[in-house]
Backbone:
């Protein structure tokens, strides 16, 4: 997500809020239910210790029916990725994923490398910003045709 990505996300959320039904309305409801209340995680001087990262997944992940179901608009010429957030550096978290530290199987089995050009310009973030940005980035990448697994 480029500069102003949270503003773009807010605009998308505003549009989705006005939809009467369909996947956009369901997405809006899911995002709103899962977001914490403003101020519950951050205060004006909140520390920026959270990071969002994107990990390139081997295309073999598409053999998973669950992954394919989550990505009905996947375009074959696009990457498959994992989008997640962490309190560690993206590099340290990726190494933990690859060491199979109990993280989801998609990164431990199919993770190939970090894709910092998709996230580095926004890190570090407060925890609340990271929660919002993770969802916004996953949404944006799915809209572009990426195969996305969100942590």
Residues:
């Amino acid at each position: 997500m480029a500069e102003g990505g949270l503003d773009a996300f807010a605009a998308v959320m505003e549009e989705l809020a006005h939809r009467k039904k369909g996947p956009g309305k369901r997405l809006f409801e899911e995002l709103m239910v899962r977001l914490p209340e403003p101020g519950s995680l951050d205060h004006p001087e909140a520390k920026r210790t959270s990071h969002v990262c994107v990990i390139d997944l081997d295309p073999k992940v598409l053999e998973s029916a669950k992954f394919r179901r989550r990505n009905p608009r996947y375009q074959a010429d696009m990457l498959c990725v994992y989008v997640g957030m962490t309190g560690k550096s993206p590099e340290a978290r990726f190494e933990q994923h690859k060491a199979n530290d109990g993280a989801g199987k998609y990164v431990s089995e199919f993770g190939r490398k970090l894709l910092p050009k998709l996230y580095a310009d926004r890190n570090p973030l407060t925890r609340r910003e990271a929660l919002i940005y993770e969802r916004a980035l996953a949404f944006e990448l799915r809209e572009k045709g990426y195969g996305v697994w969100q942590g």
Summary: The beta strands are 51-57, 80-86, 111-114, 147-150. The first helix runs from residue 5 to 17. The CA atoms of residues 58 and 110 lie 5 Å apart.
